Amino acid sequence: MNILLAEDDAEIAAYLCKGLAGEGHVVDHVPNGRDALGQAMSQPYDLLVLDRMMPGLDGLSMLKSLRAARVRTPVILLTAMGSVDDRVAGLRAGADDYMVKPFAFAELLARIDTISRRPALKDEITELRVGDLHLDLLTRCATREGKSIDLQPKEYLLLKHFMERPGRVQTRTILLEAVWGLHFDPKTSVVETHISRLRNKIDKPFERQFLTTLHGVGYVLQP
Which CATH architecture has domain 127-221? Predict the structure, then answer.
């Protein structure tokens, strides 16, 4: 693995660098948090090992900055602060593991091995765009041409379903299952009613129409 070690204690850093290199890992050592943050943001690493207390920028603040910048590299925090609150703070900030000094090198290797077997995280999708239509998945807010669109819960789910599949025909059966969780036909016009309401909000006030009905087939959000 390609590992960045951010540790200001020269003795501990030398010991870890030698041990990790002996296990076949490539290790870059940086003795302060600010320089380590810049390196972690600009270079790809398989793992970051961060001391919590460092000059320039502490490990917890560095970790928060990385996660805010959507850097998903796994992180092991090293610290002499071993209280439950300290461990919880580290994990909530985005750490994958937490080790209290002093620790056995064999345990560090075991934890690195565990992290290396985890599947890589994919960036979370937080918004959808189709033309000038935008849907924020965190706030559930929709806009078109910069104008806010007020959506009811089922209208939001319906629009999200269409925007995740632009250009693909969605039948009534598919929509009943995806939006209402129904695996049978309730013999009502619930789909048609919500499609009409959604079209009135995302299409009617605008010149270009996104939501199209294919009679006898289904509906499609045209990209």
Answer: Orthogonal Bundle (1.10)
